[in-house]
Design a protein that fits this description.
Pfam families: BPD_transp_1
CATH class of the largest domain: Mainly Alpha
Order of helices and strands: HHHHHHHHHHH
Distance between the termini: 40 Å
InterPro entries: MetI-like (IPR000515), MetI-like_sf (IPR035906)
Family: Belongs to the binding-protein-dependent transport system permease family.
CATH topology of the largest domain: MetI-like fold
Shape: flat
Subcellular location: Cell membrane
Largest sheet: none
CATH architecture of the largest domain: Orthogonal Bundle
Number of domains: 2
Number of strands: 0
CATH superfamily of the largest domain: MetI-like
Main location: membrane
Length: 283
């Protein structure tokens, strides 16, 4: 009987499985390249539409030219050379990290309890749904009056914005854990700590990471208006500063930075989920 490598035309010493793996890898590489090219084409189309729109508007107003992509690009060297941009980026990322940490500190335990105890879910669900539907920005005056100006009200608004997707995702993860695993742990006389670490944590890890990724997107949206609450650093503050100085080209450059950083944060969260969340799901 002839071997698979002979039928497939594979070189001597190369198995049919290796050929299949190589073809699969090539197919995945082509798909990744296609997705990348389509993504770049979409970005190019948006930039082109932006440039055409500004060019048409600048015929009637010379001020409109400052909002174009070329004007924004020319301001980047100045922003970078003065170290202003990286200082404000660092301040914004620090606030994102603190807000996300507080949201996880409150959201994961609360979501676990809601998912674990049906009575608690029934009692808290209406109140949580009501609070979740209130825009975090609606709390801005109360946050300033209660916490003053500076970082504390910003941390409060970011935490309030990010906690809900984490609570909901964690509760959903607890409720979807296979009851047979819980029964197995109880039948083996596992302690509460062992049940938590070996059954619940692996069971909800993917859901928690999903909630974190959603929370990061919400945090990045709320961050810019939150940084207009009397702070003297951050990308939101830089937007106001550019507006007050009538530096509209710099303003558009900062807008581009905000979009790029948000994209990178979401990409990082997606990579972490694919690295750890999918592994936990398979386990």
């Amino acid at each position: 009987m002839s071997s698979l490598s002979e039928h497939s035309g594979a070189p001597d010493g190369v198995s049919g499985g290796q050929v299949v793996d190589a073809l699969a890898d090539a197919g995945r590489a082509r798909r990744r390249a296609t997705r990348w090219l389509l993504g770049m084409a979409g970005l190019a189309a948006i930039v082109l539409a932006w440039w055409i729109g500004v060019a048409l508007a600048s015929r009637h107003s010379a001020l409109a030219a400052q909002f174009g992509p070329l004007a924004a690009w020319r301001t980047f060297p100045e922003l970078v050379s003065e170290d202003r941009l990286f200082t404000h980026i660092g301040a914004s990322l620090r606030r994102i990290g603190v807000g996300l940490a507080w949201a996880m500190l409150f959201g994961v335990p609360l979501g676990f309890l809601i998912g674990r105890f049906k009575t608690l879910e029934t009692a808290l669900s209406p109140a949580l749904q009501l609070l979740r539907m209130i825009s975090p920005l609606a709390w801005m005056p109360i946050a300033v009056m209660s916490l003053g100006v500076g970082d504390p009200p910003v941390y409060f608004l970011l935490t309030f914005a990010a906690v809900w997707p984490i609570v909901i995702s964690t509760a959903a993860g607890v409720q979807q854990i296979d009851a047979r695993w819980v029964q197995l742990g109880e039948s083996l006389a596992a302690t509460r700590a062992e049940m938590l670490w070996h059954i619940y944590v692996p069971g909800i890890a993917a859901h928690v990471l999903t909630g974190v990724r959603l929370a990061i997107g919400i945090l990045w949206i709320v961050l810019v208006p939150a940084e207009m609450l009397g702070v003297n650093s951050g990308l939101g503050f830089l937007i106001l500063d550019c507006r007050d100085r009538l530096a509209y080209a710099e303003l558009m450059a900062v807008v581009l930075v905000i979009g790029a950083l948000g994209f990178l944060l979401d990409t990082a969260a997606r990579v972490v989920y694919q690295r750890f969340g999918t592994v936990r799901e398979r386990e």
